[in-house]
Amino acid sequence: MYEVSAELLALCRSIPYEVSGDGEGSELSPDDFMLLSASANRAKSWLCEHCENWNGSKDRQVCLTCYWAFPENYTHVATRHIRRIDLVWQGDEVAVYEQLKAAASELGKEVPEFVKEVLEREAKLLG
């Protein structure tokens, strides 16, 4: 589990205010919010602000199936057919990252490209 110090966390709405306002005629609840790291919060803000839904119909249902509202269960990222994994190596895990980085470099590849290829090979073994 990736650990972030409390002072680097930001509380934000799962569904942007610009899309859903204060909810569907009910009071807001803790379930309407999520904690994100400052960098993830900025990424979410930027992608939401440039999303077709934000700039168009502002359909709350579209947001309910977005990664940025519910990363544990989503069908799109800002209306685009995308799946994503955010990986962080910290502490003792950094040595594994350095091994991956060295292997990628030997093959003339960037780390994300190399890691994706490794995961694709493993997925094929799963069937």
Shape: globular
Mean pLDDT: 93
With strands numbered from the N-terminus, the spatial order across the biggest sheet is 1-2
Determine the number of helices (DSSP H or I, runs of at least 4 residues). 6
Order of helices and strands: EHEHHHHH
Radius of gyration: 18 Å
Distance between the termini: 27 Å
Major beta sheet summary: 2 strands, antiparallel
| Poorly predicted sequence stretches spanning 5 or more consecutive residues | none
Say how many strands there are.
2
Q: Name the beta content range.
A: 5-15%
Which structural class best describes the helix and strand composition?
Answer: mainly alpha
State the helicity in percent bands: 40-55%
Plain-language structure description:
The chain is globular. Helix content is 43%, strand content 8%. α5 crosses α6. The chain is mainly alpha-helical and 127 residues long. It has helices at 17-20, 38-49, 52-55, 60-64, 94-106, 111-126, and strands at residues 9-13, 33-37.
Layout of helices and strands:
Elements: E1 9-13, H1 17-20, E2 33-37, H2 38-49, H3 52-55, H4 60-64, H5 94-106, H6 111-126
Antiparallel strand pairs: 1-2
Helix pairs in contact: 5-6
In short:
With 127 residues, the protein is mainly alpha-helical. The protein contains 6 helices and 2 strands; from the N terminus they run βαβααααα.
